[in-house]
Structure to design on (487 residues):
């Protein structure tokens, strides 16, 4: 199947999931249909089962649309699960004999979020991270989709093409700060009636509803990394026919992925403990690669992404799965200041946005054979839509339960085929990753697709992994522990 809105959430019932030189992109006329490139019908080899298999054990079904599983210092027997509909759940994982367990609500932001409210809605509560100093400061940060109110730190990029239909932003992405307290029973909770709760730290407008990124991760440097999609729609270009059959806006010139003047289509890095930003709620690290670059958003850490929905750290190494469009999904090792290619490339291939036509979900864009390009980072691994529809980034495995997967980036895909919610589990050895994409072979970790859509992963304090699923009928979800079953 070919679906041009490849964020995970586009396939989950009413739940959502789901350039070249270091200069600011200049405005240019939108790309028109190309006759110089030959579309590729089958860009990559099929993914085959590998020598290692994993088993799943249900930890809880007390979730709706779980997109991330995180940990807090001092809470080694709990996984905290971000639920897209607006909840942060406490999931006790310490006693396997009690699985499946009930969940307890830590935070409810359902009144703040817009979405998910309809089929394909990619908005909602998308990410959270406890402060590295949580045992001392008790701070939690969240990423939510909220109603645009005209006060965002970054507005939608200005479209000047006559064919673009300028409208108000669909919503804005909001990073908030919360103070967490401990209940008498030892659990965590957020009392939203306390003064200072939910302070807005960093905000940016989104022109369309999809491609929001949404993950939050503290790195070993103590700084907060934020994943951001290209602003949504299709092709990252103005005038492209959107899902509402209206011409897109908010993607001028060569698109947001290549535009250093916007946080859209980027991995961002901020210091939420600082107060030197224009809004007084965070600081821009002086070591960010585009600090001092005229016209560039100084919060940018890396660029050229379409929708880096989930990201994770393996020591100092940052990994993400960047959701593709019509043809190719990719896994990226993210380095400071580097350009990951969108919309010049999709995976390890050239990307031609073609004209502005759409055929249902599919735009008329396509990939074509093109060698690696100077200044653009190739993905570590990629696969095409014969094997899935939307990559869901995971973790490099460092636990004890699956020794054969140590050093393997464990990740997944939302569903093998559009709308059937048969997710898949994959692995690729990244110790170390070859600079050649073709040498980094993706293998399947199950004998077949799962009975549910993969929409996230979690890692506990012992570095063991959990896959987060949404039911095939879209009525709920589950958290499943991964364990090695063979060899």
């Amino acid at each position: 199947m070919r679906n041009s809105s490849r964020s995970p959430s586009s396939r989950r019932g009413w739940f959502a999931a789901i350039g070249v030189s270091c200069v600011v992109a200049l405005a240019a006329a939108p790309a028109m249909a190309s006759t110089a490139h030959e579309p590729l019908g089958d860009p990559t080899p099929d993914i085959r089962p590998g020598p290692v298999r994993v088993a799943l054990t249900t930890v809880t079904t007390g979730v709706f649309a779980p997109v991330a599983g995180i940990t807090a210092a001092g809470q080694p027997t709990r996984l905290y699960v971000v639920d897209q509909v607006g909840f942060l759940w406490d999931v006790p994982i310490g006693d396997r004999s009690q699985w499946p367990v009930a969940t307890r609500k830590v935070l409810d932001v359902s009144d703040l979020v817009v979405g998910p409210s309809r089929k394909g809605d990619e908005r909602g509560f998308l990410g959270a991270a406890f402060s590295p100093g949580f045992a001392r400061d008790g701070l939690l940060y969240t990423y939510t989709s909220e109603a645009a109110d005209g006060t965002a730190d970054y507005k939608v990029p200005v479209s000047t093409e006559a064919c673009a239909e300028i409208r108000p932003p669909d919503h804005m992405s909001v990073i908030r700060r919360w103070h967490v307290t401990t209940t008498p029973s030892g659990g965590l909770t957020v009392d939203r009636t306390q003064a200072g709760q939910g302070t807005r730290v960093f905000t940016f407008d989104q022109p369309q509803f999809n491609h929001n990124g949404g993950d939050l991760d503290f790195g070993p440097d103590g700084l907060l990394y934020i994943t951001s999609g290209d602003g949504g729609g299709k092709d990252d270009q103005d005038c492209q026919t959107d899902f509402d059959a209206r011409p897109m806006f908010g993607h001028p010139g060569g698109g947001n992925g290549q535009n250093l003047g916007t946080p859209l289509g980027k991995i961002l890095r901020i210091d939420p403990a600082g107060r030197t930003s224009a809004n007084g709620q965070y600081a821009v690290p002086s070591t960010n690669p585009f600090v001092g670059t005229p016209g560039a958003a100084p919060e940018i850490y890396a660029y050229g992404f379409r929708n880096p929905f989930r990201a994770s750290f393996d020591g100092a190494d940052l990994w993400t799965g960047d959701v593709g469009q019509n043809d190719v999904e990719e896994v990226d090792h993210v380095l400071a200041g580097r350009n990951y290619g969108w919309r010049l490339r999709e995976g390890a291939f050239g990307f031609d946005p073609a004209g502005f036509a759409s055929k249902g979900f599919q735009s008329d864009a396509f990939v074509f054979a093109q060698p690696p390009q100077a200044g653009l980072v190739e993905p570590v691994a990629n696969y095409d839509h014969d094997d899935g529809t939307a990559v869901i980034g995971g973790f490099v495995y460092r636990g004890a339960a699956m020794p054969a997967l140590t050093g393997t980036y464990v990740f997944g895909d939302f569903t093998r085929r559009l709308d059937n919610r048969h997710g898949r589990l994959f692995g690729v050895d990244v110790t170390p990753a070859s600079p050649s994409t073709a040498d980094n072979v993706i293998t399947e970790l199950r004998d077949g697709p799962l009975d549910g859509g993969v929409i996230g992963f979690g890692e506990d304090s012992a570095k063991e992994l959990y896959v987060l699923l949404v039911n095939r009928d879209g009525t709920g979800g589950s958290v499943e522990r991964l364990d090695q079953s063979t060899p």
Observations:
- The domain at 8-486 is CATH 2.120.10.30 (Neuraminidase).
- Residues 1-34 have pLDDT under 50 and may be disordered.
- The longest strand covers residues 53-63.
